[in-house]
Structures are given as C-alpha cells and as structure tokens.
Write a structure and sequence with these properties.
The chain is of the alpha/beta class and 366 residues long. Helix 8 (124-139) packs parallel to helix 9 (152-161) and helix 11 (210-220) packs across helix 12. The radius of gyration is 24 Å and the shape is elongated. The protein starts with a helix and ends with a strand. The protein has a 9-stranded mixed β-sheet with strand order 1-2-6-5-4-3-7-8-9, with helices on both faces. It has a 3-stranded antiparallel β-sheet with strand order 10-12-11. Strand 11 and strand 12 (361-364) form a beta hairpin. It is built from 18 helices and 12 strands. It has 3 domains: 1-62; 106-289, 3-Layer(aba) Sandwich (Rossmann fold); 304-364, Winged helix-like DNA-binding domain superfamily/Winged helix DNA-binding domain (Arc Repressor Mutant, subunit A), CATH 1.10.10.10.
Length: 366
Amino acid sequence: MSDIEDWLFLLHTEGLGVAGFHKLLNTFAHPGNILDGRSAQLAKLGLSDKTITAIRQRDPELIRKDIEWLNAADNHHIITLLDPQYPEQLKTIDQPPPVLFVRGDLDYLQRPQLAMVGSRNPTAAGRRTASDFAHHLSDSGITITSGLARGIDGASHQGALQGIAGTIALVAHGLDIVYPAAHRALAAEIANHGAVVSEVTIGTEPHKGLFPRRNRIISGLSLGTLVVEAALKSGSLITARHALDQSREVFAIPGSIHNPLARGCHQLIRHGAKLVETASDIIEELLPHLPESVPTANKAVNSAKTEQTLDPDHQKLLKCLQYEAVAIDELVNCTGFSAAEVASMLLIMELEGSVVNQSGRYTRIK
C-alpha cells in the first residue's frame, strides 16, 4: 500500500472528518500508524465502533476513483499535509486540509497570494474593478486566489490570467467536476496557468456545506483577502472573517452608499478592514511579506489616463455617471446637453468600453 493510499483511506472514512483526522495525526503522527493501530487505541480517542470498523476494512473500492484520477494526467496531483510541496501558508491555519487534490502546477501554491472575493451578481463596474485589480496584482507578481464562482470570482481569475503570476481556483467539489459548468473553459485555462484545488475526494458533488470550508482555504492560502463587492449577507464576508481569524490582512473597496453590493464592504471597513482605491494600496501593505524577487508595480489602477484621452464634453458626461446606474434624462439634467447629444456620446463611450448599458441605465466601468 502506498503512502497516498493511506491518506485517502482515512479521508474516505465515514464519521472521521477533518477534526477527527487531525486528532488521530496528533496521536499517531502518520496515517499508516493509524491504520495499523489497535481498535482499543482508536476507541480511547473517542472514535465510534462504526468509524473504527471503517478504518480497519481499507476497502480498495473507496479510493479507486481518486487513484484513477491521479494517474490520468501529468498535471493531476494529490499532496498531503506531510508532503514538502504542501503550501506552507496553509499549514498555519487551524486544522488545515489533510489532503489537497490539485489540477495544474504545484509551484503556484507556494507563491505569494491574494484572495479576491465578491458578489456572484456584481455590477458592471464591480466586475471591471475586479478584473483590473487582479491583472495589476498578477503583473506585480502576486498570484490571485478565488473560488471559480460566477461574478467577482470569475472576473478576478480572468484578470489574473492576463498577468504574469497566474491564479488559483479553490472549489467545493471533486476535481472531476466543473462547477459552474459555464466556467469549464476558464477552469482549463487556470489549470494551464495556475492550479485548480480541492480538499474533497473525486466524485464529490458540490453542496451547501462545502462552500464555507472551501472559503477557509481561499483565505488560508493567501496573505490577505480583498472584497470587491458584497451584500451584507454574503459568502464573501465569511471568507473575510476566516481571514481575520487566520491573522491575515483584509481589504475592501468602497462603493456608492446607494449600491447594496457596497454595504458588505462598508461594514468590513467600519470593523477595521483596510480601505483600498488602487492595487498599489494593497501592494504597499503586503510588501513586508513579499519575497524580494516579487516586482512592485509603479502604476495605480485608476481612470485618470482614460479621462485625459476624452474630449471635454465626454469628460463632463463621464463625471456625471460617477459609477452608478443613471438614466439618460438624469444625465441631460446633469450635463445640460440635449438627449440626442447624450445618447450619441453614450454610444461612443459604450463602444470604447468606458460605460455599459444596463436595462436603459448607464454605468461607468473605467
């Protein structure tokens, strides 16, 4: 029996869980010793008869899918808590995952990382902000870690893939599955320029209870967590709380007081999260924790350059948008231009990618 198989048998043991796994490791030091341990020793640690029986059986069928997946491709990996390739940053959290399944390049797990999280239904401005920040931070040598969900997660991964440091996706299911299915191509690209990671076995379907567990790994792998847009009752705030519990930095991007997706960020800022306006704000905070080989950026993510390239009328219109969804009649009142003039300028700006039309209301995105 291989070392990996020992770990997998315990991972599949019904009723054990991560806490039970760590309790056994603290006593026996290695899964092989646990599997060879006497039933009386296991019972003294509080394990039920059912769990002890499951440990003793070592049914090869339990781990067959995992082993087949591992052998199916060169970029499929299973690493354990005692493996030298296990990420050092993750080891520092309470009860780190005993086993990680990885599709991609293991080297990315050791790189300095920033978690980026936010709404699954962001505004166009929030999506663009996430992509821009991720691109800039990745170009500065910081790998972006997120959860492969729709919205801010997806935009963060896509932005990071445009940079040099790549991205890591933490998922709440087995790595033979892609969820959401719409991100199948994105997951494949991440595996080529980063890594897709899970703590659960092959064949495990996504379910509600796995996502908070996934979130603790996202924050645990990272030096800090950036929340881009989040409502007050948001899974992103759970990730931020994990980051605080793990003594990581928490950053939040403020937004309009009229935007419900800014309220979670504002709450975090009120409770001590660092307000950031540019990616450089984050780099400055993380700089003491970054290796000397990581380049620092000398440009901020902002819209000054964009505005300088617009003629005065377009600049005036852009300032009236102020990153909130605004109807044409409101823009007419703000600018003093006619409705036809406003509509013409909005069309040009939409084609340039500086505004987006959301059901007849226009939002500034850069």
